[in-house]
Amino acid sequence: MTGTVTFYLVIKALHVMAAFAAYGLPFGYPLVIPYLRRNHPRTLPGVHDIQHRLSIALTGPGTVALFAFGVYMATKDHLWGESWVMVGVTIIAIIAIAGGGIVKWTKELSELARADIDAGGETVVFGAEYDRVYRIYLATETTLGALVLVAIFFMVVKP
């Protein structure tokens, strides 16, 4: 026997979909970007352009949707005092704040990579400024991916 589809369950499903849509690709970036840098450095201007575009068009709106759906569920079921809800809210706040940096850094990385490639010869050598922004970006993206996993753990286990 199947359960009844309620508005609440639809919101819950949309909440999960928003998390997947917003954070699925960025979760893989700390693996993909270093690989591309080592093996296909000339692709990085375009890759960073895509990251910038997806941050604006998908990750940002997905974060807003995730938060809105979560607020609805926490309010409807009076869950604001639950520790697992507060962990999720704290993590989404960190992601929202750091997301502004991600948007800025991916745009910068695209421009810097393009300039370094245009200025160089056959072998791609990225400059000190690209390296500086790259390190900050990659550390932030890795940290945010770990925080998403922590949030998922708390949402599912509800300690």
Mean model confidence by pLDDT? 96
Class by helix and strand content?
mainly alpha
Strand content: under 5%
Beginning-to-end CA distance, first to last residue? 30 Å
How many DSSP-defined strands?
Answer: 0
Description:
The structure is a single chain. 84% of the residues lie in helices and 0% in strands. It has helices spanning 7-39, 44-76, 83-119, 128-157. The chain is elongated, with a radius of gyration of 19 Å.
Helices and strands in order, then pairings?
Elements: H1 7-39, H2 44-76, H3 83-119, H4 128-157
Helix pairs in contact: 1-2, 1-4, 2-3, 3-4
In short:
By secondary structure, this protein is mainly alpha-helical.
Which descriptors would you attach to this protein?
elongated, 159 residues
